[in-house]
Amino acid sequence: MTARGAGAISSIQLAGAGAEDILKKIFIRLCQPSAALHAMEGRGFGGQGAKTNFKVGDILHGNIFDGGALVDEVVIGCEAKDFFSINCHGNPIIVENILELLKKHDVRIAEAREILEYMGEQKHGDNVIAIEAQIGQSQAATIYGAKIIGHQTKMGLLQAANWWLENLDTLELDDIKEGAEQILNDSKIADLFIRDVKIVIAGPPNTGKSTLFNRLCGRDKAIVTDIAGTTRDWLSAKVRLKRIMAEFFDTAGLDQMLSGQNSIDAESQGRAVELIENADLVLYVVDCTNPAIVMAGLTESLKKLVVFNKCDLGKDFPTGGLCISAKTGEGIDRLMTAIEKTLGVLYFDIKKTVCFTDRQKGILKQVASASTKQRIKELIQELLKGSVAV
Predict the structure, then answer these.
(1) H/E/C letters for each residue in the chain?
(2) Are 213 and 314 found together in one domain?
(3) Domain annotation covers residue 3
(4) 146: in domain
(5) Would you say the pTM of this structure is higher than 0.85?
(6) Which of residues 352 and 234 earns the better pLDDT score?
(7) Does one domain contain both 77 and 23?
(8) Which domain, by its residues, includes 35?
């Protein structure tokens, strides 16, 4: 269940009929430091294990054995009948050894998403929105995103869908469609809390984009020189803001003349434009000592924030943008706030009714364009009882 790779702790979920019987064959509870060794000596332990009894809510400390060989010291949580959490050391080799041992006992290895869906079905039955919420919360990029998703199983999307269904005969068709449109619009902002927000740092060469990128990262990741055009390829780094998790991209300086210089410059310009087109927000960095703004590569539809850099040089600041010094850090806090304000997340009510999966959004789009109440009824029933998709 934890990310692949080394860590302090890794967690393996063991679920399904027979899970308890398998654990009884490989796990010995530690009542005192030498208990497992005494158990081996006293019983001639060879893979049968101590007959530990598991109760829901138990947290047990002990060892996992493969035959007579110690695999790892673990903590096991009994979360439900035939549903256990094995918390072992985070060395990937140890995790692999435990998985291989489980496979010897006819366990099928599943991805985390499948286990979460199984957990959701056991807990919520056929409540598809609640099952999707259980999966979605585990994948949310921020605590706000997890709270937004959790709300949809209480007073949010689930309640709205049930209310539409119960009052379909008395509600106006247009009112339901407008309600669906509002949910879809609010979902666009809610989505920024749930996933990583892509923010591209763009602008002409030598305006301090890489210096700003390094400042936002908190360390030197991009090469910085006084030579225009130093950055040829893009770099990225994830930064936690006040309410969202942002992935910043440092790109090559936008200059139409470079597009025709050589294949390398043309490729770097093309990659920068591609990143810009797929960004949630563009920070367009301008040198405040030379503030002529040419929005190369930017369309009107893109969300953008003009950032005047190098304000530490003491020049008269231009109007219509945010003045900062990436070199000294002046204005960076204001920039962070401006980013969240521009994206619409700074004052967003996390208790709004929203969709949080593509399945839900697809159904609500159909509701918003439905021509009959019968069609809306069918769509809402699909929203509530359809197939899980996250």
Answers:
(1) CCCCCCCCEEEEEEECCCHHHHHHHHEEECCCCCHHHHHHHHHCCCCCCCCCCCCCCCEEEEEEEECCEEEEEEEEEEEECCEEEEEEECCHHHHHHHHHHHHHCCCCCCCHHHHHHHHHHHHHCCCHHHHHHHHHHHHCCCHHHHHHHHHCCCCCHHHHHHHHHHCCCCCCHHHHHHHHHHHHHHHHHHHHHHCCEEEEEECCCCCCHHHHHHHHHCCCCCCCCCCCCCCCCCEEEEEECCCCEEEEEECCCCCCCHHHCCHHHHHHHHHHHHHHHCCCEEEEEEECCCCCCCCCCCCCCCCEEEEEECHHHCCCCCCCCEECCCCCCCCHHHHHHHHHHHHCCCCCCCCCCCCCCHHHHHHHHHHHCCCCHHHHHHHHHHHHHCCCCC
(2) yes
(3) no
(4) yes
(5) no
(6) 352
(7) yes
(8) 9-109
